[in-house]
Amino acid sequence: MLPTLVVFLSFFYPPSDSFKYSNDSTVTEIVRYDGRKIPFQNQQQIFHYVNISNPEVEVKVKCAHCNAERCRPLPFCYSIQYSDDEYPKKHGIPTENILNVYDKWGHGQYGMTLTANVLVDPTNLEAIGNANIFKEGDSSERRALFTQWAQKMKQDGSLAIGQLSHAGRQTPRYVNPTPWSASDIQLKTSDNQYGKPIALTTEQVKTEVIDRFVFAAKFSFECGFDGVELHGAHGYILSQFTSPTTNKRTDKYGGSLENRNRIILEIYDEIRKEIPSKEFLIGLKTNSVEFQSEGTTLEDAKEMCRAYEERGFDFVELSGGTAEKFLFNHERESTKKREAFFAEFAEQIRPVFKNTVVYLTGGFRTVGAMVDAIERNTTQGIGLGRPVTAEPDLPKKILNGEVRSAVKDEFNQNEMGKTIMASCSQIEQMGRKSLEGAGGNVMDQISDFSDGKLVEQFDGALLEFMKEVKEALIEGRIPKSIIVFN
Ligand SMILES: *[C@@H]1O[C@H](CO)[C@@H](O)[C@H](O)[C@H]1NC(C)=O
Ligand SMILES: *[C@@H]1O[C@H](CO)[C@@H](O)[C@H](O)[C@H]1NC(C)=O
Ligand SMILES: *[C@@H]1O[C@H](CO)[C@@H](O)[C@H](O)[C@H]1NC(C)=O
Questions:
Q1: Which of 11, 188, 235, 484 has the fewest CB atoms within 10 Å, i.e. is most exposed?
Q2: Is 80 contained in some domain?
Q3: Which residues form the signal peptide (predicted)?
């Protein structure tokens, strides 16, 4: 049996904006990827830049508004651009580039295609440039573009799923130094890139989180999406509620496991009230485990998943980790052979699911490992991320029997930051032209990193990129946000 393939793209985003500085540090406008300029209204904080080849060494930029503390590097890739100047009506609307990207994936014979993070609160972004759905920004233009986005995803029969997120305390300082969270527990990182969050009141849990997810789900439904996936993993706000490390509440949303999980079940119920049709899928991305003391344990995750099954969630995508501790690599030989990073955890959770479909994402590269995971009943679908920026139609080639694995690139797989940057560059390449504009070739302009020489060139481009960014910041010019490669 060949697995259903699910595209999953949460860790990297198509490129978009860069920033202009009026003086040392204040962002005054965002320059779109296509050169158009947009005034930047949320100029709270600004940041230093980190050299990703050498994250210990900070690129020094004088910083006027962050108390000389180290702030946040620019995220290296953005999702969807800010657009034009009319805030908030045009804030975070899909662009032509993103539509072009999904035009390519829309011809890859995926079973289900997910948008990456679409944020439900424009002040609690995961990165500048995220796509947004929020009631204050509702407009016919936004609806038309999200509708087109769904259509691009569905072209060859894939389901289109909107991945809905709210970053909470994982909102970078420069977006919002006081984001929401379950409790006021700050995310501490060495570069101090996150501010101290404000604990939501019981009332605000409803108005600022639940209602916003429900609005975005209904909006997605009305734009033709086949479902939504609530992002309850990786340390975003829903996992800030479920994890005892970040939830110290004493109301009905804190304390027991049942209470910590309540917000997710309430969002489910409220969406189902608005959209009773079971044709519209409601899924959840959740952590199988958090790799830190006091974090969600495997046992907790299992209990929570039992509740999702009982409530009626259509699917659950298992992942793991938070921004404090990611484990997207193979620390153990046993998982290396099986390719899936979280297979062993998934297997232990698996028995609680009967009607809820289980997906597993992260690490799969060969058809053998994919089929093995399905045959072992570890998962009912395979999520693909980085491999499909190199080959947007990988599932099609697998299903046609043309290939037995993803293309093996020549990057050192332990250099995750670099492989993500490379994937971002490939997404930028995909976004340059529509499929028709590319003469029907989904591979149009995409760099083939199985060529070692090209990898060397990319290494060079990366160094050059870092240098340019540093110079641009120091000189107050507009730095680039991604490597436009070849
Ligand atoms: C930098 O820009 C900020 C905001 O526009 C302004 O308040 C500040 O005075 C400027 N500093 C200098 C040195 O121009
Ligand atoms: C897969 O696992 C689930 C949960 O334990 C079980 O209900 C189902 O029967 C299994 N399917 C197969 C084909 O073994
Ligand atoms: C980044 O760090 C690497 C490794 O130390 C160094 O070779 C490179 O010059 C640095 N780049 C910048 C822009 O500082």
A1: 188
A2: yes
A3: 1-18
